[in-house]
């Protein structure tokens, strides 16, 4: 199962869709800048929703594609590479149109202020596009994880590996998004000065992504040879993949700690609920993985973040009560004002 979890993490930085991950992170950063001042909790809540939506879109495509591949394996694996070329052309057209002022809702942060549902839907669409561009590089791994395992080890084994694959991708993307949300305070100061240029920056990223995907499709998928551009990008992607593979234990613990602590900070409202979740998570995780040390680190991070969230709730409640008004005092003040006004008139 750990093999397919790591494969899922690597799917997020696959050679076909490698350039789409920074494009997504740039979009998220621009979205946060367009929404103006928000509390840390609101920012983290948005980061969780956006990354979860993108991951669901990514996995939806792979589930459908892998289901079809169960019946048309040879055809799909042979022709999945063409999805990269088609999506590359679509991104070039979209990027060029955006440079001339055309704006899609999910690529225009200024129009998404307060529209949480639209943001979630748009990120699901982006996740679908991300997956389509990545099909040629990663569909084989997913088919092996789910259907090849199902035929050899049973349906439960295939389902378990498919979940591990999706969790690996979601944890990496979610962890990066949340980390960027934590760092947004300093970055947004820079962004706000250049916010009027965000549309053009987003257009440039989309256009560059499309050009690269089409270039990759021609040189790698069709001609089956490399060139200076694809070789350089593939080398950088290979470096990141090697790092994730060599440090999978540390990266996994870090990403789970970031996501778990963020969820605890954002959504925990009671101490008993927090304690129950942490205890249950540590017990189940320890028994499931037999790695009590790693699970203990994650549980500690979740507990600490949950306590911070509860303390923040108390501070917010205290501030709210401190700024509240006393009705009796307000009535007496109003009465005093009326008597003073009557005296002035006399």
C-alpha Rg (nearest Å)? 25 Å
Number of strands: 0
Largest sheet: none
Helix tally equals 13
Mean pLDDT reading: 75
Count of spatially separate domains: 2
Head-to-tail CA distance between termini: 88 Å
| Shape label | globular
Low-pLDDT segments: 106-117, 325-346
Protein structure class: mainly alpha
Summarize the amount of helix as a percent range: over 70%
In percent terms, what proportion of residues is strand? under 5%
Compile the SSE list and pairings.
Layout: H1 2-11, H2 20-34, H3 40-79, H4 81-99, H5 116-153, H6 155-182, H7 184-193, H8 198-222, H9 228-246, H10 248-267, H11 271-289, H12 292-322, H13 327-345
Helix pairs in contact: 1-5, 1-6, 2-6, 2-7, 2-8, 3-5, 3-6, 3-10, 4-5, 4-8, 5-6, 6-10, 10-12, 11-12
Structural key phrases:
single chain, 346 residues, 2 domains, 13 helices, 0% strand
Describe the structure.
The chain is built from 13 helices and no strands. It folds into 2 domains: 2-226, no CATH class; 246-323, no CATH class. By secondary structure, the protein is mainly α.
